Amino acid sequence: MGATQIREPQAQGRRERKKAATRKAIADAALRLFLERGYDNVGIREIADTADVSTATLFKHFPSKEALVFDMDTDREAGLLDAVRKRPQEQPLLAALRDYVLAGAHLSQDAEMAQFLELIRSTPALSEYAHRMWMRHESALTQAIAEASGAPQGNPTCRALAHFALETTALARASDDPRTAVESAFELLEHGWNTTRPNV
């Protein structure tokens, strides 16, 4: 029994590494095929065959075809909350959120990321899925904003701020000038319509 107990963590480690490697192989195969031929022109069975797994194994790792494209949801929420909780003491909360959103928007300067973002923008199913995934972080961000500002949990102003801060990513994706779109939205959040409205 003692020998088994010593080997068990190593066995678990190997299983986890193998599981992670399989998941990455599936995601990489899917993204490569999507970028080469378009999301709608690639089937689940073809992705499984390319990754050398069964379709059953594929669905153990990814619950839907859309999920194959997005594999960083937990990491993204952690990064979002860190932007609020670990910002420099002198940095305002809204500025920290704006900088986080801008950092994500400007990954498109990388050629591969630009291609990935164009895939999402040009595929309605992926755009809708990306938006739903991102907005799932609203409750966690609301809580982080409430903690940072000393407001009570469930404060409607904190929830509104979280909601509209997250929505700025959709503006960035849809704009030819993501930086201006994000900065304008956060200026509105910070100062209100009366001080930011255009002169028309």
In short:
By secondary structure, this protein is mainly α. Helices cover 75% and strands 0% of the residues.
Describe this structure in words.
Helix content is 75%, strand content 0%. The chain is mainly α and 200 residues long. The protein folds into 2 domains: 2-64, Orthogonal Bundle (Arc Repressor Mutant, subunit A), CATH 1.10.10.60; 73-196, Tetracycline Repressor, domain 2 (Orthogonal Bundle), CATH 1.10.357. Helix 4 runs antiparallel to helix 5, helix 5 packs parallel to helix 9 (156-174) and helix 8 (138-149) packs across helix 9. The termini are far apart.
Record keyword descriptors for this entry.
single chain; 200 residues; mainly alpha; Arc Repressor Mutant, subunit A; 0% strand; disordered N terminus
CATH superfamily label of the largest domain: Tetracycline Repressor, domain 2
Largest sheet: none
Mean pLDDT: 86
CATH fold node name of the largest domain: Tetracycline Repressor, domain 2
CATH architecture of the largest domain: Orthogonal Bundle
The percent range for strand residues is under 5%
List the helices and strands and how they pair.
Elements: H1 2-37, H2 44-51, H3 55-61, H4 73-85, H5 93-105, H6 111-122, H7 124-135, H8 138-149, H9 156-174, H10 178-191, H11 193-196
Helix pairs in contact: 1-2, 4-5, 4-8, 5-9, 5-10, 6-7, 8-9, 9-10
